[in-house]
Each structure stands twice: as C-alpha cells, then as structure tokens.
Amino acid sequence: VLSGQIYEAGIRPAPGVVLVHMLSRSRADWDGPAMVLQALGVTALAVDLRGHGGSSGAADLPDMVQDVRAAVQFLSGQQGVRPDRIGIAGASLGANLALLAAASEPSIRAIAAVSPSLDYRGVRVGADTMRRIGERPVWLAASTEDPFALRTIQDLAAGGSSAREQRLSPVAGHG
C-alpha cells in the first residue's frame, strides 16, 4: 500500500505532476514545491515509495519504479486532472525512478530529474533510458559540487535531443 498527498489545483481540468522523493526520505520533502505547483494550477501528487513514510513494504530499490508508475496511473485517473498532461519530478533515487518510469510510460509528457546518478545502487539510467524517453522534455539539475550527479546530467543531456535542459547550481547539495 502506497501513501501519498495530493495537492489539487483550483482550475480544472489541470495538468498533473508526480513528485518522487530521495532514499530514506518521504513525500513531505515535496510540500513546498507541491504548494507552488498547486498555486500555479497544477495538481501534484507526492508519493511515499515502498518502505518509506506511510507506505508499506520493503524498500527494494529496483521495484520502486512500479510505485512511480502506480502513482502516475492514480494521478491520471483523478477527476479534474488531464491524463494527457502528466509530468514527473524526482530527486536523487527519485530522479532515476522518474526517468525509468517515463522511459516505459509514453503518457508521461515531461520529466524533471534533480541529482540523478547513472547507477544508484542498481537503479541504472543512461543513453538507452533517454532514447526511450525520446523527444519529451527533460529538465536535469545538479550541483557543480556533486561530481556523480554532474557527470550523470552531462551524459544524459548528450542524448542528442533538443528537449534536454541542464541547470547547474554552485551551491553544494544533493537532491
């Protein structure tokens, strides 16, 4: 059983976005950004991955992409949400899961990945992931002080699509 918090936009039908947290964190990390999205007319769903926050189950990292797909399916089915306008955003492990979910779910229209890693404890993303995402827009962000995430976004952005945007922050941080 997955737990989540939905932030419904006041305007309907609204686009939607699924927000995916970092390892050992919870959906509460997304409260601030979710409220901003809500105020901008986007319905947001912050989800607790299995074994985190209010969700049950073991924290098996490779299986968590199923949690993200389930969250996308749930949000897409909500009254007042446009199923043709669903995005996904994740941080750290959540970034990898967001990219993998988008690679297998063509209904996901846009992706934001903050501090992804080419290999996050066996949850791997790379050129093949980006090929499967295709021309959908991908926003990639990392700190210049986070060498693994920095290298990852540079590698992922090199996927040849004009729909890849990189944001680098000089502030030390991850996720």
Observed structural traits:
single chain, 175 residues, alpha/beta, seven-stranded mixed β-sheet, two-stranded antiparallel ribbon, 5 helices, 30% helix, globular
Fold and architecture overview:
This protein is α/β, with parallel strands linked by helices and 175 residues long. The chain has helices at 31-39, 64-76, 93-104, 127-133, 147-157; strands spanning 3-7, 14-20, 43-48, 81-91, 108-114, 119-120, 123-124, 138-143, 164-169. Helix 3 crosses helix 4 (127-133). The strands form 2 sheets. Strands 1-3-2-4-5-8-9 form a 7-stranded mixed β-sheet. Strands 6-7 form a two-stranded antiparallel sheet. Helix 3 (93-104) links the parallel strand 4 (81-91) and strand 5 (108-114). The radius of gyration is 15 Å and the shape is globular. 30% of the residues lie in helices and 30% in strands. It starts with a strand and ends in a 6-residue tail after the last strand.
